[in-house]
Amino acid sequence: xxxxxxxxxxxxxxxxxxxxxxxxxxxxxxxxxxxxxxxxxxxxxxxxxxxxxxxxxxxxxxxxxxxxxxxxxxxxxxxxxxxxxxxxxxxxxxxxxxxxxxxxxxxxxxxxxxxxxxxxxxxxxxxxxxxxxxxxxxxxxxxxxxxxxxxxxxxxxxxxxxxxxxxxxxxxxxxxxxxxxxxxxxxxxxxxxxxxxxxxxxxxxxxxxxxxxxxx
Length: 216
Description:
Blueprint: E1 6-13, H1 21-24, H2 44-47, E2 79-81, H3 94-102, E3 106-109, H4 114-122, E4 126-129, H5 132-144, E5 149-153, E6 158-161, E7 166-168, H6 173-181, H7 185-190, H8 193-209
Parallel strand pairs: 1-2, 2-3, 3-4
Antiparallel strand pairs: 1-5, 5-6, 6-7
């Protein structure tokens, strides 16, 4: 997991409320056994043209030029600006995998679904809750100017931009510690690798390797 402290990046505005996890990563891709490669399928249905009276048959399945992720001006953006209740729906962890694999390290929104909020934090994403008016302002600025830069300081818990915007956000101290140090659940356990190895060695010796007297 990548350690995150200060991040300055352009931001992709996605002003749609109640974006659920099936839109973030559709169910047909949950059969994959890897944890990587999901970025190609992020917002899969929204990124492509579908059958309809205004869509020629030869265009079906091709990138939809009207969808924001297909706008080359936002290529490389590491911040997603969403609307309220982002990540609702099923509890699939694949939603967080898809967002991080695509390149998003921060999502700014007025509110998040609880399970998605937990999954995202454990997979190295900083989720920033801001008042709806602040989110709308940042959305408007990033829509008007795709090069608009936003800076997230996890250590200071601030969001700023080049036009004078400034706001603070709350984050659980334990989750903050993990993100600052790039620690997922496995990384947290491996901090105690020496003690775990010593325990296993002693345990094996005491319970498996040392001969025991045979009861008469």
